């Protein structure tokens, strides 16, 4: 198997969405490698506070739904700009679709002009409510084009199509990551996704909100593993035009996640039930064979360990 090589030292890297949850972790890691990083963000869900000032970092307030023009060389572009939590992406669905599709268009044009590699943060949501498990990259998905999640799911699918056309027509160095549920320290308190919801509720003594009967499954990837995967995708040679799942194949039900948190917090937790949202996927489990083969990447952090770090972080921030 090829060794994982990361050559970001002295790279000139643009991270769109770099003030968000995954983006801020990625930016810190790239800066640590010695890269110069330009963050492009409109602070829709991200915050300036997530990035501490340093001289190899510049932060630009910019909406990716409009064209991007920056002077100087660029080696890599990471496109993470898009609200990822259903609560946030459904609050302004038209803007979500524009961010996803127009954002991919403008960043692809920018990466093409600069001769840079472009890593696109796509999502397991392109598989919709899957009829196949685990989900392989070849699976074409079961999505709704018209439901409340479509602004995100279909926006990300359209972005993938457009980027593959840029690759075929212009030779753009596109690499697409289909990211499965990622969690960890630094998630916004109001993020609205299940791990942060459960941890905030448990730490504030509120019952954990379980949608449906809790038998729907998810596979949770710790954020440092995701960052390593995104960097491996950016640095591997001869993989332009590849679409690769990044996620942790350890699948559990949401009810089991609630029970695990109860055990980790030692006090136990109370549960309250709410109806399952429309089009909520019932299964999520990545097949990561392609990531293992092409990137020599697999996740390393167990759910238990990752949750303990996440709990510590929220505990400190919630006081
Ligand atoms: N975290 C996950 O579990 C997960 C799963 C699948 C895919 N992804 C993808 O990874 C990326 C990052 O996810 P995240 O969890 O960090 O989300 P996040 O909401 O924390 O971060 C998104 C960032 O993009 C910025 N942004 C939003 N719209 C923008 C616009 N029009 N112009 C410029 N910046 C804009 C936000 O302000 C924020 O800083 C997203 O593209 C998301 O779709 C994440």
Automatic annotation (TrEMBL):
It is found in: Golgi apparatus membrane; Golgi apparatus, Golgi stack membrane. Residues 13-247 form the NAD-dependent epimerase/dehydratase domain. Keywords: Decarboxylase, Glycoprotein, Golgi apparatus, Lyase, Membrane, NAD, Signal-anchor, Transmembrane, Transmembrane helix. GO terms for molecular function: NAD+ binding; UDP-glucuronate decarboxylase activity. Its cofactor is NAD(+). It is a single-pass type II membrane protein. Pfam families: Epimerase. One of its GO terms (cellular component) is cytoplasm. GO terms for biological process: D-xylose metabolic process. This is NAD-dependent dehydratase. It comes from Actibacterium pelagium.
